[in-house]
Amino acid sequence: MTLPGKAEMPERPERLLEELLALRDEITGTADTLIARFEAVGARITPEVVNLAHYLVIRHHDLRPLQRALMWRGLSSMGRLESRVLPTLDAIAASLAALCGRVSPHPAPTEAAFFTGEARLEAATDALFGAPPLRRRCRVMVTLPSEAAGDAAFVLGLARAGMDVARINCAHDDAAAWRSMTAHVRAAADAEGREIRILMDVAGPKIRTEAVQGPKDRMKILAGEALRLVAAGRPRVSEEVPFSASVSLPEMVTRLVPGDRLRYDDGKLEGVVESLGDGEAVIRVRHTKTGGTKLKPEKGINLPDTALGLSPLTAKDEGDLATVVECADMIGYSFVSRAEDIDLLEEVLARFGAAGSPLGLVAKIERPEAVKNLPDLIARVAGRRPFGVMIARGDLAAELGFTRVAEMQEEILWLCEAASVPAVWATQVLEELVKTGLPSRGEMTDAAMAARAECVMLNKGPAVAEAITLLDELLGRMDAHLFKKTPRLRALKSW
């Protein structure tokens, strides 16, 4: 089918009906292969997984011509079928059949059946994050700073501002501090008379700079200069390579090959591997911030082209999980990439007596492999424990490139909705407000669009309480205008 032009007659309803029914048959037939693949990775084939399979099949088609032919007849744009693939097709087919004086072989769904996917997503969101606040659907997650361990009043202030989920980052502090933070969150929830869930985020094999060295007169690297990474020992500089850093994961250096890209500090610097030596790699810098990028310790390194072959759970993570099981309502799983990574985590949880527990799991989508394998990850967890997906936009942008992260964010949201999996919109939300007390105009729009997710995460900063208050109001207002991809046509009062 081609887009109707001035010299073309639009397709007749009879032809559209036959095309739609053929599409439906192809979807159900091809989805069986996908469902068999999900079963092979240990998935339970729930209705959510079946709809996910249907969605994956239909989105491999270019639906734009069919959309256009249906839209002008007032039938459907098919643009909001994520949670209800077959019900949407059946509703359209029934309407087309009525136009043709026929009866569709697939009856139109009831109202309840049509919106079942939305109900499933709501139930999954409540199971993971607890009951929603009165004025909004989207929850607010807040990363606790280290000082929260010793300041119960600070945590209470976050709760009063509207925090629904407290995030504890296990890359920082220790078990004693985490227990103290947990106690303060539970006390604040009791004082407010509502539940506040706790997510504890295990660190995973995060690659960071450690010791750094550069010219005495400056530490900013410019495009065209070279940076040496060393696997062991002190950083080593030379006239040809004036900057150097040791790394937190020495084996990464040995797995690089010439031409591999490297991004530093959320993409503030990008370079390629130029040469390799004994336990070291020289990176030629291609792009930096205007005026150069400062080389600092404890900054993240991303390697989008390098097959690291690392387990998402380090020895430290396994030790930390003992405290996570004790304190948390859900685990943030960093660097999860394959369905087998879920099994790895479950084995460790079983050792701590958490097999079959209601402990929730939030998979952080940070690397291209995780994006590619997301359907299998979702299917592997479905029906086993409360589950959500965090769109970790910082690492994802550094891995995929800034031009692709917005597009991929949308696709992940669609896939999660198709599977009735709550999504967390994370990284740099209201960052200027959190840091300075004054938001930028662009980040206000970003925060408003976060209402399409089930939870939005704020990072720590001096003005985080003000950011929670603003976000609470903003998300409540957006709920009246938007549900997922569906505009809500409430009455406008500005004109």
Unreliable segments of 5+ consecutive residues = 1-9
Mean pLDDT value: 93
Full CATH superfamily name of the largest domain: Phosphoenolpyruvate-binding domains
How much is the radius of gyration in Å? 25 Å
Strand order of the largest sheet: 1-2-3-13-14-15-16-17
Structural class: alpha/beta
Q: What is the CATH topology descriptor of the largest domain? A: TIM Barrel
Number of DSSP strand runs:
19
CATH architecture of the largest domain: Alpha-Beta Barrel
Number of helical segments with 4 or more residues: 18
At the first level of CATH, the class of the largest domain is Alpha Beta
Shape assignment:
globular
- Please give the share of residues in helix: 40-55%
Taking the sheet with the most strands, its summary is:
8 strands, parallel, barrel
Proportion of β residues?
15-25%
Topology summary:
Layout: H1 13-40, H2 47-58, H3 64-71, H4 85-99, H5 111-114, H6 116-129, E1 139-143, H7 152-161, E2 165-169, H8 175-192, E3 197-202, E4 209-213, E5 220-221, E6 226-230, E7 243-247, H9 251-254, E8 261-264, E9 269-277, E10 280-288, E11 293-294, E12 301-302, H10 315-327, E13 330-333, H11 339-351, E14 360-365, H12 368-372, H13 374-381, E15 387-392, H14 393-400, H15 402-418, E16 423-426, H16 431-436, H17 441-449, E17 455-458, H18 464-479, E18 482-483, E19 486-487
Parallel strand pairs: 1-2, 1-17, 2-3, 3-13, 6-7, 13-14, 14-15, 15-16, 16-17
Antiparallel strand pairs: 4-7, 5-11, 6-10, 8-9, 8-12, 9-10, 18-19
Helix pairs in contact: 1-2, 1-4, 7-8, 14-15
